[in-house]
Amino acid sequence: MSTKTKLYEGKAKVLYPTEKPEILLTVYKDDATAFNAQKKGTIKGKGEVNCTVAAALFKSLEKSGIPTHFIDCPSSNQMLVKAVKIIPLEVVVRNIAAGSLSRQTGLKEGAVLDNPLVEYYLKDDDLGDPLLTRDRIFLLNVVTVEQLDILKEMALKINQHLQEFFNRCQITLVDFKLEFGLDQQQSIILADEISPDTCRLWDQNETDEQARVMDKDRFRKDLGAVESAYSQVQSRVLATIDQAN
Ligand code: TMP
Ligand code: ASP
After folding, report:
1. What percent of the chain stands above pLDDT 90?
2. Which pLDDT score, from 0 to 100, does residue 3 have?
3. Which of 34, 44, 125, 150 supports an S-S bond with 220, CB 3.0-4.6 Å?
4. CA 140 to mean position of chain CA atoms
5. Stretch 185-200: mean pLDDT
6. What is the CATH number of domain 85-225?
7. End-to-end CA distance of the chain
8. Mean pLDDT, the chain, whole residue set
């Protein structure tokens, strides 16, 4: 795959054009950042793990009727995707209190929520991705009322599917972040990635609060053994996909 002029370079991926305007090439990087890029590092093999995990989850979601931008992986850290106009919202779904929800509300980390919580953050690094209210979303004209309803419905359906999938991997899906885009037909489809960078994943075989962490919190909180946790997620996801096929 030729690596010509970049269209866009993000913190974890680089986007390239292809011969077809409706298809883009995403190259997943080993670069890791946290706290709005105030902390920077490298997680060896992360690009490959995240691309492989995201591809497996996108394929599984497609089978259950969720449209995604995924097309194919020409190599282990490269993904061909449908070109979309990204909706500037980070949609976070939470099943268990952790991270900013615990910090901002006092809910104890690990408290199981009665119902999944769907939150919307403005995708804007300069503003530090602020948490939005419904009225602020409409004030900023980010999406219409109908589009927000679709986003919430899709996010909850994705959560249901992923919770079941990760349970089969003996992993608890604590929370995760999604991004959506508008395709050529202006339909909303799932975009970006779903990976240990964008999910909180706890090992159901570990009770220790630090040992159970299998996601980017190992990097954020300097817990060590980041690479082995990422590769463990990849192995379990691939084994679970194989069982289903
Ligand atoms: P938070 O608890 O820090 O708000 O994070 C919620 C979820 O969103 C967690 O699974 C990590 C993910 N996330 C991202 O993917 N990107 C981000 O920039 C942030 C802040 C969180
Ligand atoms: N992805 C975000 C960043 O670097 C934050 C995070 O994942 O913690 O900056």
Report:
1. 97
2. 54
3. 34
4. 24
5. 98
6. 3.30.470.20
7. 29
8. 97
* CATH 3.30.470.20-classified regions of the chain: 85-225
Give the rounded distance of the alpha carbon of 187 from its chain centre. 20
Is the Cβ–Cβ distance between 24 and 17 less than 8 Å?
Answer: yes
Q: How far away, in angstroms, is 177 Cα from ligand 1 center?
A: 6
CA atoms of 180 and 68, how far apart (whole Å): 9
Ligand 1 center–CA 90 separation, angstroms? 9
Q: Of 226, 172, 241, give the one whose Cα is nearest residue 46.
A: 226
228 alpha carbon – ligand 1 mean position (Å): 21
What is the pTM (predicted TM-score) of this model?
A: 0.97
**In whole angstroms, what is the distance from residue 1 CA to residue 132 CA?**
39
Please work out whether the CB of residue 198 comes within 6 Å of at least one atom of ligand 1. Answer: yes
Alpha carbons 99 and 109: distance in angstroms, whole number:
8
Q: Which two tokens stand for residue 115?
A: 């119902």
CB–CB of 56/135 below 8 Å? no
Q: Is 176 in the pocket of ligand 1 (CB under 6 A)?
A: yes
Every domain of the chain with CATH number 3.30.200.20 lies at 8-82
pLDDT higher than threshold 60 for residue 1: no
Please state which CATH number belongs to domain 8-82.
Answer: 3.30.200.20
**Cα-atom radius of gyration of the chain, to the nearest Å?**
17
Residues with Cβ within 8 Å of residue 6, at least 6 apart in sequence: 14, 15, 16
| Secondary structure of residue 207 in the 3-state scheme | coil
What SS3 state is found at 6? coil
Q: How far, in Å, CA of 160 to CA of 232, rounded?
A: 22
